[in-house]
Amino acid sequence: MLRRKITDQLLAWKNTPGRKPLIIKGCRQCGKTFSVLEFARKNYKHTVYLNFFENPDYASVFSGSLEIDNIVMMLSALLGKDAVFEPGQTILILDEIQDCPEARTALKFFRIDGRYDVIGTGSLLGVKGYGKEPRSVPVGSETVLEMYPLDFEEFLWANDIAEPVIALLQRSLDSGSPVPEALHNRMRQLLLQYTVVGGMPDAVQTFVTSRQMDEVLRIQRDIVRSYEDDMVKYAEKKDKSRIKECFQSIPRQLAKENKKFQYSVVKKGSTSAKYAGSLQWIEDAGIITRCHNLSITELPLDGNAEEDAFKVYMCDTGLFVSMLEDGTQFDILQGDLYGYKGAIFENLIADIFTKMGRKLYYFHKDSGLEVDFVIRYQGECTLVEVKARSGNVKSTKTILNHPEKYHVSHAIKLGDYNIGKTGPLLTLPLYMAFLLRSC
């Protein structure tokens, strides 16, 4: 069974006095339902489970009075022995809650009542064109958690890399000392594997148990197809084809030298007026993430982000690689990256940063200056360059040489090498990106 970080967050929620009902958002098939049911099994005497997607008739329970005693009575009549409500001992799980807006409205009343814990999960919450809005969004009456596919650290756990090993890597980072060669090589191998497998639970479990990459690829492409089906099935009619076109353009967008998202790459002559809503749909579904250009390299980063200048990355590196041509997985595992190498490793680092909860920023000027990512690290504005193997960081060095102009004095180069430091430039192996936690 895959170990997930969401479990610790669920336990922290359960141990919070006066806790509100919990909403867990995340893309389809990232493990929400399994994680919540496993948590419920271990921490509650009774679990009452409703899946509104599989059983639309359950919505009728919430179509009348939202008084809690009435809901409990209706569920008991509908589910019989599968609906035992005991104050403090029962958790109600409302799976795919976006398919029953009235159930989300009811969260306010569950919070006021306080006898039963409630968790709702949603894959397409807030996505334009999907379902109806609740009569009343329970503002202030719910806690929302974002869940992603497995991150790199969870992938390491799945591959039997224990906490002491990760602690050793952290000590190497903190002290600036090289990682022992045997461990360094093992981590390089695991990173390449994560690059192609990604973090979708079915793909990771299949990889861990069988190592059959053709089966992993089949699972990934099935997931991508299911996303495309959602776009056609649930989006508003006028947006259906545009959303799919935006989604399918992502590999082409990232393959360009200037990776800024361009609507003309989606379709010749396209404009933001025509396609901006379509791109937003994909982002709201948790499939992609945006990386905004900064007008200046200063904190706060969010305050200096340019709204209309951005790159787009897939939230999961494995799904991105599965969208590339056949044979790409094998090439990456062999270390042969060819023309896509920049796109693949930038998307990998975007995946790692996004799953850490970081917003993504980069820095580009028409003068030619370009830095892959800019983060807040140890309280400072820090440049991050990503190299598939090695490579120069001309733009970063230019910025570091003019601190009075750019207000930056620290930079990190991630690539295929061990730890080192040259002046203000810290070089790290790519696999250490997940350890850059300190804000």
UniProtKB/TrEMBL annotation:
Known InterPro entries for this protein? Answer: AAA_14, DUF4143, P-loop_NTPase, Restrct_endonuc-II-like
Q: Is ATP-binding one of the keywords? A: yes
Statement: the UniProt record of this protein carries the keyword Methyltransferase:
no
Supply the alphabetized keyword list. Answer: ATP-binding, Nucleotide-binding, Transferase
| GO terms for MF | ATP binding; transferase activity
Domain AAA, chain residue ranges per copy: 19-156
Q: Which residues form the DUF4143 domain?
A: 228-388
PANTHER family assigned: ATPASE (PTHR33295)
Q: Which named protein is this?
A: ATP-binding protein
